[in-house]
Protein backbone atom coordinates (compact mmCIF):
# COMPACT_ATOMS: atom_id res chain seq x y z
CA UNK A 1 0.00 0.00 0.00
CA UNK A 2 1.51 3.28 -1.12
CA UNK A 3 1.38 6.54 0.79
CA UNK A 4 -0.94 8.82 -1.16
CA UNK A 5 0.72 12.14 -2.03
CA UNK A 6 -2.06 14.66 -1.52
CA UNK A 7 -1.45 17.57 -3.87
CA UNK A 8 -4.68 19.30 -2.97
CA UNK A 9 -3.84 19.42 0.73
CA UNK A 10 -0.21 20.39 0.09
CA UNK A 11 -1.28 23.15 -2.30
CA UNK A 12 -3.70 24.51 0.33
CA UNK A 13 -0.87 24.57 2.91
CA UNK A 14 1.43 26.42 0.52
CA UNK A 15 -1.30 28.91 -0.39
CA UNK A 16 -1.78 29.65 3.32
CA UNK A 17 1.98 30.28 3.61
CA UNK A 18 1.82 32.54 0.55
CA UNK A 19 -1.09 34.55 2.01
CA UNK A 20 1.03 35.42 5.05
CA UNK A 21 3.99 36.38 2.88
CA UNK A 22 1.69 38.49 0.68
CA UNK A 23 0.41 40.37 3.74
CA UNK A 24 4.03 41.07 4.74
CA UNK A 25 4.70 42.27 1.20
CA UNK A 26 1.70 44.62 1.37
CA UNK A 27 2.81 46.06 4.72
CA UNK A 28 6.30 46.64 3.46
CA UNK A 29 5.63 47.97 -0.04
CA UNK A 30 2.04 49.26 0.11
CA UNK A 31 0.88 47.25 -2.87
CA UNK A 32 -0.04 43.70 -3.77
CA UNK A 33 1.78 41.38 -6.19
CA UNK A 34 0.03 41.30 -9.57
CA UNK A 35 -0.46 38.64 -12.25
CA UNK A 36 -1.77 39.24 -15.76
CA UNK A 37 -2.92 36.42 -18.04
CA UNK A 38 -3.58 36.69 -21.76
CA UNK A 39 -6.07 34.21 -23.16
CA UNK A 40 -6.75 34.12 -26.89
CA UNK A 41 -9.99 32.45 -27.95
CA UNK A 42 -12.29 30.15 -26.01
CA UNK A 43 -10.50 26.80 -25.78
CA UNK A 44 -12.58 25.15 -23.01
CA UNK A 45 -9.59 23.75 -21.10
CA UNK A 46 -7.85 27.15 -21.23
CA UNK A 47 -10.98 28.88 -19.94
CA UNK A 48 -10.98 26.56 -16.90
CA UNK A 49 -7.21 26.82 -16.30
CA UNK A 50 -7.25 30.62 -16.48
CA UNK A 51 -10.25 30.83 -14.18
CA UNK A 52 -8.38 28.66 -11.65
CA UNK A 53 -5.37 30.96 -11.85
CA UNK A 54 -7.53 34.03 -11.17
CA UNK A 55 -9.18 32.30 -8.21
CA UNK A 56 -5.81 31.36 -6.79
CA UNK A 57 -4.72 35.01 -7.09
CA UNK A 58 -7.79 36.11 -5.11
CA UNK A 59 -7.12 33.42 -2.54
CA UNK A 60 -3.54 34.51 -1.84
CA UNK A 61 -4.31 38.23 -2.09
CA UNK A 62 -2.79 39.19 -5.44
CA UNK A 63 -4.07 41.71 -7.95
CA UNK A 64 -4.97 39.88 -11.16
CA UNK A 65 -6.34 40.50 -14.61
CA UNK A 66 -7.26 38.30 -17.57
CA UNK A 67 -7.10 39.91 -20.99
CA UNK A 68 -9.29 37.93 -23.39
CA UNK A 69 -8.57 38.43 -27.08
CA UNK A 70 -10.77 37.06 -29.87
CA UNK A 71 -9.96 33.70 -31.50
CA UNK A 72 -9.18 35.41 -34.81
CA UNK A 73 -6.75 37.96 -33.33
CA UNK A 74 -3.84 38.94 -35.54
CA UNK A 75 -0.32 38.15 -34.43
CA UNK A 76 0.41 41.88 -34.01
CA UNK A 77 -2.56 42.35 -31.68
CA UNK A 78 -1.42 39.59 -29.35
CA UNK A 79 2.15 40.86 -29.45
CA UNK A 80 0.99 44.40 -28.67
CA UNK A 81 -0.94 43.16 -25.63
CA UNK A 82 2.12 41.35 -24.30
CA UNK A 83 4.23 44.49 -24.71
CA UNK A 84 1.55 46.59 -22.97
CA UNK A 85 1.49 44.23 -20.00
CA UNK A 86 5.30 44.06 -19.89
CA UNK A 87 5.24 47.82 -19.32
CA UNK A 88 2.36 47.86 -16.81
CA UNK A 89 3.80 48.30 -13.29
CA UNK A 90 0.66 46.79 -11.75
CA UNK A 91 1.80 43.32 -12.84
CA UNK A 92 4.88 41.47 -11.64
CA UNK A 93 3.99 38.31 -13.56
CA UNK A 94 2.63 37.81 -17.05
CA UNK A 95 1.70 34.69 -18.97
CA UNK A 96 0.05 33.81 -22.24
CA UNK A 97 -2.16 30.76 -21.86
CA UNK A 98 -1.22 28.01 -24.30
CA UNK A 99 -2.09 26.56 -26.73
CA UNK A 100 -2.78 29.59 -28.91
CA UNK A 101 -5.21 29.39 -31.84
CA UNK A 102 -3.72 28.21 -35.11
CA UNK A 103 -1.93 30.88 -37.10
CA UNK A 104 -0.36 32.55 -34.08
CA UNK A 105 3.37 32.12 -33.52
CA UNK A 106 3.52 30.73 -29.99
CA UNK A 107 7.32 30.76 -29.76
CA UNK A 108 7.59 34.34 -30.93
CA UNK A 109 4.82 35.57 -28.63
CA UNK A 110 6.34 33.84 -25.58
CA UNK A 111 9.74 35.29 -26.52
CA UNK A 112 8.31 38.81 -26.13
CA UNK A 113 7.37 38.32 -22.48
CA UNK A 114 9.73 40.28 -20.23
CA UNK A 115 11.93 37.51 -18.71
CA UNK A 116 11.61 39.23 -15.31
CA UNK A 117 7.82 38.76 -15.53
CA UNK A 118 7.96 35.24 -17.02
CA UNK A 119 6.34 33.39 -14.12
CA UNK A 120 5.74 30.29 -16.29
CA UNK A 121 9.49 30.13 -17.04
CA UNK A 122 8.66 29.38 -20.69
CA UNK A 123 10.92 32.09 -22.14
CA UNK A 124 14.10 30.65 -23.63
CA UNK A 125 16.15 32.79 -21.26
CA UNK A 126 14.52 31.16 -18.24
CA UNK A 127 14.75 27.70 -19.83
CA UNK A 128 18.46 28.39 -20.36
CA UNK A 129 18.92 29.63 -16.79
CA UNK A 130 17.42 26.34 -15.60
CA UNK A 131 20.06 24.41 -17.55
CA UNK A 132 22.78 26.55 -16.03
CA UNK A 133 21.28 26.09 -12.54
CA UNK A 134 21.30 29.84 -11.89
CA UNK A 135 17.58 30.09 -12.37
CA UNK A 136 15.41 32.24 -10.18
CA UNK A 137 12.06 31.31 -11.70
CA UNK A 138 11.29 27.58 -11.81
CA UNK A 139 8.74 26.10 -14.24
CA UNK A 140 5.52 25.53 -12.31
CA UNK A 141 4.69 21.85 -12.82
CA UNK A 142 8.27 20.55 -12.34
CA UNK A 143 8.68 22.82 -9.30
CA UNK A 144 5.42 21.40 -7.92
CA UNK A 145 6.76 17.86 -8.36
CA UNK A 146 9.95 18.64 -6.42
CA UNK A 147 7.95 20.40 -3.71
CA UNK A 148 5.72 17.33 -3.26
CA UNK A 149 8.71 14.98 -3.09
CA UNK A 150 10.42 17.20 -0.51
CA UNK A 151 7.34 17.67 1.64
CA UNK A 152 6.75 13.90 1.69
CA UNK A 153 10.44 13.42 2.54
CA UNK A 154 11.22 11.29 -0.49
CA UNK A 155 15.05 11.20 -0.66
CA UNK A 156 16.35 12.85 -3.82
CA UNK A 157 20.12 12.84 -3.39
CA UNK A 158 21.60 9.83 -5.18
CA UNK A 159 18.13 8.46 -6.06
CA UNK A 160 17.54 6.85 -9.46
CA UNK A 161 14.98 9.12 -11.11
CA UNK A 162 13.31 8.22 -14.39
CA UNK A 163 11.26 10.84 -16.21
CA UNK A 164 9.01 9.46 -18.94
CA UNK A 165 8.26 12.22 -21.45
CA UNK A 166 10.48 15.00 -22.84
CA UNK A 167 8.14 17.94 -23.32
CA UNK A 168 9.45 21.48 -22.98
CA UNK A 169 7.07 22.31 -20.15
CA UNK A 170 7.25 19.16 -18.01
CA UNK A 171 9.64 16.30 -18.90
CA UNK A 172 12.81 18.22 -19.75
CA UNK A 173 12.59 20.80 -16.94
CA UNK A 174 11.55 18.09 -14.42
CA UNK A 175 14.72 16.17 -15.35
CA UNK A 176 16.79 19.35 -14.87
CA UNK A 177 15.34 19.97 -11.41
CA UNK A 178 15.84 16.36 -10.32
CA UNK A 179 19.44 16.57 -11.51
CA UNK A 180 19.89 19.82 -9.57
CA UNK A 181 18.58 17.95 -6.51
CA UNK A 182 21.39 15.37 -6.98
CA UNK A 183 19.28 12.52 -8.38
CA UNK A 184 20.69 10.27 -11.12
CA UNK A 185 18.35 11.07 -13.97
CA UNK A 186 17.21 9.10 -17.01
CA UNK A 187 14.77 10.57 -19.52
CA UNK A 188 12.67 8.00 -21.39
CA UNK A 189 10.46 8.85 -24.35
CA UNK A 190 8.51 7.45 -27.27
CA UNK A 191 11.66 6.05 -28.91
CA UNK A 192 12.97 4.36 -25.75
CA UNK A 193 13.53 0.63 -26.18
CA UNK A 194 12.02 -1.62 -23.49
CA UNK A 195 10.43 1.12 -21.40
CA UNK A 196 9.59 -1.29 -18.57
CA UNK A 197 13.23 -2.20 -17.98
CA UNK A 198 14.04 1.52 -17.63
CA UNK A 199 11.10 2.42 -15.38
CA UNK A 200 11.78 -0.57 -13.11
CA UNK A 201 15.10 1.02 -12.11
CA UNK A 202 13.40 4.14 -10.78
CA UNK A 203 13.28 5.10 -7.11
CA UNK A 204 11.41 8.14 -8.39
CA UNK A 205 9.26 7.70 -11.48
CA UNK A 206 7.79 10.80 -13.09
CA UNK A 207 5.38 10.14 -15.93
CA UNK A 208 4.39 13.02 -18.22
CA UNK A 209 3.34 11.57 -21.55
CA UNK A 210 -0.42 11.98 -21.87
CA UNK A 211 -1.31 8.33 -22.44
CA UNK A 212 -3.77 6.70 -20.07
CA UNK A 213 -2.59 3.42 -18.57
CA UNK A 214 0.95 3.67 -19.99
CA UNK A 215 2.57 2.72 -16.67
CA UNK A 216 1.33 -0.45 -15.00
CA UNK A 217 2.29 -1.98 -11.65
CA UNK A 218 4.73 -4.48 -13.21
CA UNK A 219 6.79 -1.52 -14.53
CA UNK A 220 7.35 -0.08 -11.06
CA UNK A 221 10.11 -0.87 -8.57
CA UNK A 222 8.58 -1.88 -5.23
CA UNK A 223 8.58 1.13 -2.89
CA UNK A 224 9.18 3.72 -5.64
CA UNK A 225 7.70 7.22 -5.55
CA UNK A 226 5.39 7.49 -8.56
CA UNK A 227 4.49 10.97 -9.78
CA UNK A 228 1.77 11.02 -12.40
CA UNK A 229 1.58 14.20 -14.46
CA UNK A 230 -0.80 12.78 -17.08
CA UNK A 231 -4.18 14.44 -17.65
CA UNK A 232 -6.24 12.14 -19.84
CA UNK A 233 -9.88 11.27 -20.25
CA UNK A 234 -10.73 7.57 -20.20
CA UNK A 235 -13.48 5.96 -22.28
CA UNK A 236 -16.09 7.07 -19.72
CA UNK A 237 -14.85 10.66 -19.88
CA UNK A 238 -13.28 10.47 -16.43
CA UNK A 239 -10.01 12.31 -15.74
CA UNK A 240 -7.10 9.89 -15.34
CA UNK A 241 -3.32 9.98 -15.40
CA UNK A 242 -0.66 8.02 -17.30
CA UNK A 243 -0.34 5.51 -14.46
CA UNK A 244 -2.75 2.63 -14.02
CA UNK A 245 -3.50 3.46 -10.40
CA UNK A 246 -5.13 0.13 -9.49
CA UNK A 247 -2.07 -1.96 -10.39
CA UNK A 248 0.54 0.66 -9.39
CA UNK A 249 -0.71 1.56 -5.94
CA UNK A 250 0.02 -1.82 -4.28
CA UNK A 251 3.61 -1.76 -5.60
CA UNK A 252 4.60 1.89 -5.11
CA UNK A 253 5.85 3.44 -1.87
CA UNK A 254 4.32 6.82 -2.71
CA UNK A 255 1.88 7.72 -5.45
CA UNK A 256 0.06 10.85 -6.65
CA UNK A 257 -3.60 10.49 -7.62
CA UNK A 258 -5.14 12.10 -10.70
CA UNK A 259 -6.93 14.38 -10.08
CA UNK A 260 -5.61 15.85 -6.82
CA UNK A 261 -1.89 15.11 -7.20
CA UNK A 262 0.42 17.27 -9.27
CA UNK A 263 -2.40 19.36 -10.83
CA UNK A 264 -3.20 21.60 -7.84
CA UNK A 265 0.52 22.22 -7.28
CA UNK A 266 1.04 23.86 -10.67
CA UNK A 267 -1.15 26.89 -9.98
CA UNK A 268 0.28 27.10 -6.49
CA UNK A 269 3.85 27.34 -7.87
CA UNK A 270 2.64 30.02 -10.28
CA UNK A 271 1.54 32.06 -7.25
CA UNK A 272 4.92 31.44 -5.61
CA UNK A 273 6.72 32.60 -8.75
CA UNK A 274 4.59 35.74 -8.94
CA UNK A 275 5.41 36.66 -5.34
CA UNK A 276 9.11 35.99 -6.03
CA UNK A 277 8.98 38.23 -9.12
CA UNK A 278 7.33 40.98 -7.07
CA UNK A 279 9.95 40.68 -4.32
CA UNK A 280 12.79 40.75 -6.85
CA UNK A 281 11.38 43.90 -8.37
CA UNK A 282 11.07 45.67 -5.01
CA UNK A 283 14.43 44.51 -3.71
CA UNK A 284 16.48 45.42 -6.78
N1 LIG B 1 -1.28 25.45 -20.94
C1 LIG B 1 -1.25 24.32 -20.21
N2 LIG B 1 -0.51 24.50 -19.11
C2 LIG B 1 -0.04 25.75 -19.16
C3 LIG B 1 0.79 26.53 -18.30
O1 LIG B 1 1.27 26.09 -17.25
N3 LIG B 1 1.02 27.81 -18.70
C4 LIG B 1 0.52 28.33 -19.84
N4 LIG B 1 0.82 29.58 -20.15
N5 LIG B 1 -0.25 27.63 -20.66
C5 LIG B 1 -0.52 26.35 -20.31
- The proportion of residues in beta strands is 15-25%
Please compute the radius of gyration using only Cα atoms: 19 Å
Number of helices: 10
Could you tell me the CATH topology label of the largest domain.
Answer: Rossmann fold
Hetero groups bound? guanine
Number of distinct beta strands: 11
Order of helices and strands: EHEHEHEHHHEHEHEEEEHEH
Largest sheet descriptor: 6 strands, parallel
Shape: globular
Give the low-pLDDT segments: none
Strand arrangement in the largest pleated sheet: 1-11-8-7-5-6
Q: Calculate the terminal CA-CA distance, rounded to whole Å.
A: 49 Å
Main attributes of the structure:
Rossmann fold; alpha/beta; 3-stranded parallel β-sheet; globular; binds guanine; 284 residues; 2 domains
What does this structure look like?
The protein has two domains: 30-114, 3-Layer(aba) Sandwich (Rossmann fold); 140-262, Rossmann fold, CATH 3.40.50. Helix content is 42%, strand content 15%. It contains ten helices and eleven strands. The protein has helices at residues 7-29, 44-60, 75-87, 106-111, 124-131, 140-151, 171-180, 195-199, 245-248, 263-283; strands at residues 3-4, 34-40, 63-69, 93-96, 160-164, 184-188, 204-207, 225-228, 232-233, 239-240, 254-255. The strands form three sheets. A six-stranded parallel beta sheet has the order 1-11-8-7-5-6. It has a three-stranded parallel beta sheet with strand order 3-2-4, with helices on both faces. Helix 2 crosses helix 10, helix 6 (140-151) crosses helix 7 and helix 6 (140-151) crosses helix 10. The longest helix is centred in the first third of the chain and has 23 residues, at 7-29. The radius of gyration is 19 Å and the shape is globular. The relative contact order is 0.16. The structure holds guanine (GUN). Residues 95-98, 120, 140, 266 line the site of guanine (GUN).
Amino acid sequence: MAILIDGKKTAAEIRAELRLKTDDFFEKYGRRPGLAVVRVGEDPASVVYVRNKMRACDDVGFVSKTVVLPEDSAEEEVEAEVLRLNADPMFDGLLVQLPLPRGLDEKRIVSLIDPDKDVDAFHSLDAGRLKLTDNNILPCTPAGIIELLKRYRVPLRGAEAVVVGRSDIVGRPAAALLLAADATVTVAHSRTRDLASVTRRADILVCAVGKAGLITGDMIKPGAAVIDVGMNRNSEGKLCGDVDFASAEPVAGFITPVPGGVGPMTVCMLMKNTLSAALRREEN
